[in-house]
């Protein structure tokens, strides 16, 4: 789709629907071609990958509906995996048993351009919150740090 027209575009080097646009572009790294997948409203591509040469070995193979659908599926999967990886980096947890009690400790980091924040929280075996404190986004959650926090009576770690 273009900014001027809400209609889907189905051309040899540009293909779009209401959510996605595929653009065949010159590969800057070699003599070949690449395809860039853009999510509607985004200025940067969600995914860029190699594109097949046409029969003349000079121009790119034209886009078509089947290729576009495959590219959309690949771009969605790439975004989903990137989001899962970011979530895993920002949210850590572990469980340990102290004094006969099973305690789950969670670290959640909230990224922000102005300065990230983080919180540490303890939950009992019934998911009832035992404590929550603010910590540095650089706090490293491991068994030793979780145990030290619990044994301190949930005092804010330094």
Ordered list of secondary-structure elements with their pairings:
Elements (H helix, E strand, L loop, with lengths): L13 E3 L3 E7 L6 E7 L7 E5 L13 H26 E8 L2 E10 L6 E7 L5 E7 L7 H9 L7
Antiparallel strand pairs: 1-2, 2-3, 3-4, 5-6, 6-7, 7-8
What can be said about this structure in brief?
This protein is of the alpha+beta class and 158 residues long. It has 2 helices and 8 strands. The strands form 2 sheets. A 4-stranded antiparallel β-sheet has the order 1-2-3-4, with helices on one face. It has a 4-stranded antiparallel β-sheet with strand order 5-6-7-8.
Gyration radius over CA: 24 Å
Arithmetic mean of pLDDT: 92
What's the overall geometry?
Answer: elongated
Strand proportion, as a percent range, falls in 25-35%
Structural class call reads alpha+beta
- C-alpha termini separation: 52 Å
Number of H- or I-type helical stretches:
2
Secondary-structure element sequence? EEEEHEEEEH
Indicate how many domains the architecture comprises. Answer: 2
Sheet with the most strands, sense and barrel status: 4 strands, antiparallel
What oligomerization state is this entry in?
A: single chain
Fraction in helix: 10-25%
Total DSSP E strands: 8
Strand order of the largest sheet: 1-2-3-4
What does this structure look like?
By secondary structure, the protein is α+β, with helices and mostly antiparallel strands. It folds into two domains: about 15-85, no CATH class; about 100-150, no CATH class. It is built from two helices and eight strands; from the N terminus they run E-E-E-E-H-E-E-E-E-H. The protein has helices at about 65-90, 145-150; strands at about 15, 20-25, 35-40, 45-50, 90-100, 100-110, 115-125, 130-135. The strands form two sheets. The chain has a four-stranded antiparallel sheet, with helices on one face. The longest helix has 26 residues, at about 65-90. It is elongated and about 75 Å long. The termini are far apart. The model has no long low-confidence stretch (mean pLDDT about 90).
């Amino acid at each position: 789709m273009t900014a001027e027209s809400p209609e889907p575009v189905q051309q040899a080097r540009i293909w779009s629907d209401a959510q996605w646009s595929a653009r065949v572009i010159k590969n800057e790294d070699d003599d070949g071609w690449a395809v860039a997948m853009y999510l509607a409203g985004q200025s940067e591509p969600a995914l860029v990958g190699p594109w097949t040469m046409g029969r003349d070995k000079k121009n790119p193979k034209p886009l078509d509906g089947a290729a576009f659908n495959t590219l959309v599926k690949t771009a969605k999967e790439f975004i989903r995996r990137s989001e899962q990886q970011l979530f895993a980096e920002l949210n850590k947890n572990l469980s340990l048993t102290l004094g006969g009690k099973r305690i789950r400790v969670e670290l959640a980091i909230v990224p922000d351009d102005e300065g990230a924040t983080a919180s540490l929280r303890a939950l009992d075996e019934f998911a009832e919150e035992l404590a929550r404190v603010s910590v540095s986004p650089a706090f490293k959650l491991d068994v030793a740090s979780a145990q030290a926090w619990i044994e301190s009576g949930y005092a804010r770690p330094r």
